[in-house]
What does this fold into?
Amino acid sequence: MQQATADREGRFADPARLRAERDSLAVYLVGQSNLASENLRLRTLLGLRERVPYSFVPAEIKRLGGIDQRGAFFLTAGARQGVQPGYTIIAAGGLVGQVRDSDPGMAHGIDWTHTDFRASAMTTDGETYGIVEPRTTRAGEQVLALTGTAAHTELRPGTLIVTSGQGGVYPRGIPIGRVLQTEKDDQATDWRRSYLLRPLVSPTAMDYVLVLGPLAPGRSEDDLASSWGIRAEEPKTTPEPGAFPAQMPQPQPALPAPRAAAPAARPAPALPQVQLPVQSQVPAQAQAPAVTRTPATTPAPRPAPPPAARPRPATPPLLGTPVPTPPDTTPRT
It folds into this structure.
């Protein structure tokens, strides 16, 4: 009993040592958590690089200090590795930013939190287009805004926004963010609408990235949506009430009335039988009975014989030709 009490008092006799052990365990757990998160991002990035049709250069982001350098960073890859100004930077979640300058051993880039960041974007169904730019909420949170969209359509919260590929700055189909809500902009008009977006790549997750170059040899696909497993969705835009007048139904042309049935053909009337008398030179007792013939069997009359040819007039004698005197046939006494 006394020995157990002494051992317990000995274990709690040095509180400083206990606090040190607790802090060491906390640091270890935090380190393990960060290591697991980093391992997951690396695995996801490794799977992404196998699906991207573009050539790429893996790199690590190194942040710059100072408020004036917000959104700017260095890349651990440069011109020697093939990194050029204007190349797109992506992470496992989606779009990060763009390369601005390139040195032989490193490069300088900006992410979507930089004030100069702009990207042409659209919904995955291709119904709504706009320009994405950075925003800071009243609570100091860094978000994105989709501006310049048509006012007669409304995007639902959660709608995925991807790069449109217009302008030639970013390839088509890279995920950017999801719609949070409509932005209450003082500059909004009746012709356009803005939406706040939740970025898919947070600033804290920008550590290991891929710098996209030109299309890989033998690859012709320029839409990267399939690299993230994104498929075309049904249109999620709903027109505002009153934005367009209700479409009146168009009158349908009346169908022509069916034609009346043709009357049945009447049978031809029977032809009357005609009895023709038969003339004969034989006595009445020996005459044959009269033959009854229908008009259809009566023989047709014979055609009249052609007229006889008229005699040709005699040719008068020529002048100076002696005319023969006919012989005198008068009887003499």
